[in-house]
């Protein structure tokens, strides 16, 4: 008997792209060396609202090396927005493409300077003189929220929801809390800022773009320029982090393409760190009111969550903070609302767990406040209200192990050692606090395509136009393909990040693994079937004449189940049959499972904080996170990704905030020295556990995505622990020392 090969999926395989990353061989978007490259620099508005009345470009244009100063006066006129068609969106209004003289936010691109070197372009950009007729700008969130707008309803996401009579149930409740939580504007700070290289060849455009969505960029750029999507190729083999800001196409991408066409050379437009604060999205400010009413035993009678987030005059974006509230607990009644306050700022956008990150902060802090009011253990309160079915959709869960997350988390953390009284675990000057919260994120999936090719040398190439944000896509797809094919993992290569490859969805909404892995599995299975057919039809093959299900492919060899000693490598079979590669294409789509079940991931986060009694500084020596995310495709990259999410949550709780000069609507900490993200010294022990168990509904692999759940619940768990340490409830993020002394 031949031993059955151990599946490699799930194993903690090292990143297949790891060596390329750490040796600098991995080429990021701004690093592609093209001949005759020209360099573009953005000129940004310095007022938040008004009209451009004059742009003096004479001095800049006359400078050495300058090829183009593009403004709304000389920029190519782009096609007017078309009505939305079946598969098409109109060019997104959030793009600032130098088509008119209007300024809607501070930092809006108002000119692009192109020169033969970056330094020449930067120098000339400083000499472009713009004169404005300023108009009154709306920059006061408190004032704007007094005239709130209701967001346009989206298909699966109404702005308001209700079940039962939340007001009446609240009035009847034995214990009530009514609190307001606020979270600040935050900016994405991936290691790699946005960057684009645009190169035209006749009517065809190639973009090397830092993006989470190559096919989305292709579509958006084609629509904006009025050309066919087939004329645009977008390439992005490596992304230096995204966190949502690279999920959509921003102005600089189209501007680079426009400039490249004007100067007849490839144009590189790489944003500086400062450019990341304004024209490419941010997480909006939120203000969230939570009203909870409970019976004496903790059973929730009423949950009311009213949220308002800021948006822009350029386009709307809603931070859907109420999403977790709508489905997490089994309350008798519920009411949620989402409103918008419109400001003269750049359009906000998706930032890691949009909705769930700030929403779970408010909800899970409110639960903690309720537990205190009820004199109940916070874990016990959550267990009391655990939803057996999805209360929003009224469907059973695809699978849910949240109770097990609480149990395992409490045990790993040592929750039983906690004494309830705030400040009761003090050691000298150190106030010790324990806090916890629930984590949750929906399990999304979209159609995806992949191709697989077995080459005559016995190596395999699998491709899909997806992305690796540094999270492990290359590695997990290699593992899935190797297992589906019966191939040694070292002989399988996975390629991604190119619109010339089979199409995959945006790498956002935590759906790459759940969407693309099934397509990879399908392509590998299909190419395996073709290989087996070739072998069974070949008189020279040891499996000639065998039924397909009597043939095994193991380690790249073909053999008959019933005669395992007669075998040959696939390479020999292919060589004998003309040497052409065996290829297959496949598509994998979600079925109707969303009609039958509700697909969500869950988790429980436990945190210990140490607060300096005199200085109010908060340290987080340890965090325990236990997750129910279906089957993990790689234990190493998966744990790292969840850990990264937890680190984000710590930043959200304690450090991150875009500080604005509200007189002019511009970020004043638009750099990594002043915008504080956690660094290694801020992070203590992070203990991640992923419960075993495949989701039987999401896909054949049982794998849900894990890109976003890691951040959820963490800020609340830290805030709850800070309360437990100090007796001070901070409802306004970030929890900085000044709020504790
Ligand atoms: Mo994520 S914020 O959907 O990239």
If you had to describe this structure to a student in words, what would you say it looks like?
It comes from Pseudoduganella rivuli. Residues 75-95, 139-167 are annotated as: Disordered. It holds the Pfam family MoCoBD_2. This is Molybdopterin-dependent oxidoreductase. The protein is an alpha+beta fold and 741 residues long. The chain has 3 domains: 18-26 and 446-589, 2-Layer Sandwich (Aldehyde Oxidoreductase, domain 4); 32-136 and 191-241 and 246-276, Aldehyde Oxidoreductase, domain 3, CATH 3.90.1170.50; 160-169 and 282-444 and 595-739, Aldehyde Oxidoreductase, domain 4 (2-Layer Sandwich), CATH 3.30.365. Helix 6 packs across helix 7 (251-263) and helix 12 packs parallel to helix 13. The model has no long low-confidence stretch (mean pLDDT 96). The structure holds dioxothiomolybdenum(VI) ion (MOS). Dioxothiomolybdenum(VI) ion binds at residues 212, 242, 244, 247, 350-352, 354, 508-509.
The computed structural class is: alpha+beta
Number of domains: 3
- Total count of strands: 30
Largest beta-sheet details: 7 strands, mixed
- What's the overall geometry? globular
Strand order across the biggest sheet?
A: 3-5-1-12-9-10-11
CATH topology of the largest domain: Aldehyde Oxidoreductase, domain 4
Mean pLDDT: 96
Low-confidence stretches: none
The rounded distance between the terminal residues' Cα atoms is 71 Å
Helical residues, percent? 10-25%
By DSSP (H or I, 4+ residues per run), the number of helices equals 17
Describe the oligomeric state of these chains in a short phrase.
single chain
Please give the radius of gyration in angstroms: 27 Å
- Provide the CATH superfamily of the largest domain: Aldehyde oxidase/xanthine dehydrogenase, molybdopterin binding domain
CATH structural class of the largest domain: Alpha Beta
What's the architecture of the largest domain in CATH terms?
Answer: 2-Layer Sandwich
The kinds of small molecule bound in this structure are: dioxothiomolybdenum(VI) ion
Percent of residues in beta strands: 25-35%
Domain Aldehyde oxidase/xanthine dehydrogenase a/b hammerhead: 23-136
Biased composition (Basic and acidic residues): 154-167
GO molecular function, one term: iron ion binding
Protein name: Molybdopterin-dependent oxidoreductase
């Amino acid at each position: 008997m031949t031993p059955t090969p151990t599946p490699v999926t799930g194993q903690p395989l090292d990143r297949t792209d790891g060596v390329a990353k750490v040796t600098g061989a991995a080429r990021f978007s701004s690093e592609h060396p093209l001949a005759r490259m020209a360099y573009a620099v953005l000129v940004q508005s310095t007022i938040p609202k008004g009209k451009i009345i004059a742009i003096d470009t004479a001095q800049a244009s006359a400078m050495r090396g300058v090829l183009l100063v593009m403004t709304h006066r000389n920029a190519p006129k782009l096609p007017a927005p078309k009505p939305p068609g079946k598969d098409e969106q109109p060019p997104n209004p959030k793009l600032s493409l130098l088509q008119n003289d209007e300024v809607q936010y501070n930092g809006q691109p108002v000119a692009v300077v192109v020169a033969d070197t970056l330094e020449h372009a930067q120098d000339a950009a400083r000499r472009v003189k713009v004169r404005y007729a300023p108009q009154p700008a709306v920059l006061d969130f408190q004032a704007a929220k007094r005239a709130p707008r209701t967001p346009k309803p989206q298909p699966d996401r109404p702005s308001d929801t209700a079940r039962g009579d939340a007001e009446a149930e609240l009035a009847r409740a034995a214990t009530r809390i009514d609190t307001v939580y606020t979270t600040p504007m935050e900016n994405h700070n991936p290691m790699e800022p946005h960057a684009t290289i645009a190169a035209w060849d006749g009517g065809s455009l190639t973009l090397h773009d830092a993006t989470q969505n190559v096919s989305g960029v292709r579509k958006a750029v084609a629509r904006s320029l009025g050309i066919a999507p087939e004329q645009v190729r977008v390439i992005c083999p490596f992304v230096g982090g995204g966190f949502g800001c690279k999920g959509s196409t921003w102005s600089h991408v189209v501007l680079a393409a426009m400039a490249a066409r004007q100067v007849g050379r490839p144009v590189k437009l790489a944003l500086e760190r400062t450019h990341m604060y304004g024209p490419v999205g941010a997480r909006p400010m939120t203000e969230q009111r939570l009203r909870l009413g409970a019976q004496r035993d903790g059973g929730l009678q009423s949950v009311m969550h009213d949220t308002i987030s800021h948006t822009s005059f350029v386009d709307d974006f809603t931070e859907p903070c109420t999403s977790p509230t709508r489905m997490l607990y089994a309350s008798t009644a519920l009411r949620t609302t989402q409103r918008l306050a419109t400001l003269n700022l750049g359009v906000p956008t998706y930032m890691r767990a949009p909705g769930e990150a700030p929403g779970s902060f408010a909800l899970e802090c409110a639960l903690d406040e309720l537990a205190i009011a009820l004199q109940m253990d916070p874990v016990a309160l959550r267990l009391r209200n655990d939803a057996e079915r999805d209360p929003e959709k009224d469907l059973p869960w695809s699978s849910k192990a949240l109770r097990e997350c609480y149990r395992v988390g409490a045990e790993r953390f040592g929750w039983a050692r906690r004494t309830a009284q705030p400040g009761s675990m003090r050691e000298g000057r150190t106030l010790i606090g324990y806090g916890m919260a629930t984590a949750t994120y929906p399990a999304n999936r979209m159609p995806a395509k992949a191709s697989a090719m077995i080459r005559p040398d016995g190596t395999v190439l699998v491709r899909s136009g997806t992305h690796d944000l540094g999270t492990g896509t290359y590695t997990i797809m290699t593992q899935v393909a190797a297992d589906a094919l019966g191939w040694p993992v070292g002989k399988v290569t996975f390629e991604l990040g190119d619109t010339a490859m089979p199409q995959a969805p945006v790498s956002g909404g935590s759906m790459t693994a759940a969407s693309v892995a099934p397509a990879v599995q399908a392509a590998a299975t299909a190419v395996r079937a073709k290989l087996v057919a070739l072998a069974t039809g070949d008189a020279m093959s040891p499996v000639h004449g065998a039924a397909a299900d009597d043939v095994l492919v193991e380690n790249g060899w073909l053999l008959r189940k019933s005669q395992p000693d007669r075998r040959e490598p696939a390479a020999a079979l292919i060589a004998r049959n003309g040497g052409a590669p065996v290829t297959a294409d496949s598509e994998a789509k979600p079925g109707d499972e969303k009609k039958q079940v509700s697909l969500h991931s869950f988790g429980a986060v436990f945190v210990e904080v140490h607060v300096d009694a005199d200085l109010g500084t908060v340290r987080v020596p340890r965090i325990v996170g236990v997750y129910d995310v279906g089957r993990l495709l790689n234990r190493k990259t998966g744990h790292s990704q969840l850990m990264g999410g937890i680190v984000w949550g710590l930043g959200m709780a304690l450090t991150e905030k875009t500080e604005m000069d509200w007189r002019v609507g511009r970020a004043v900490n638009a750099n990594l020295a002043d915008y504080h993200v956690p660094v290694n010294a801020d992070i203590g022990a992070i203990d991640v556990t992923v419960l075993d168990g495949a989701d039987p509904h999401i896909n054949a692999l049982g794998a849900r995505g894990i890109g976003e759940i890691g951040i959820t619940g963490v800020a609340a768990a830290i805030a709850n622990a800070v309360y437990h340490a100090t007796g001070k409830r901070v409802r306004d993020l970030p929890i900085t020392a000044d709020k504790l002394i």
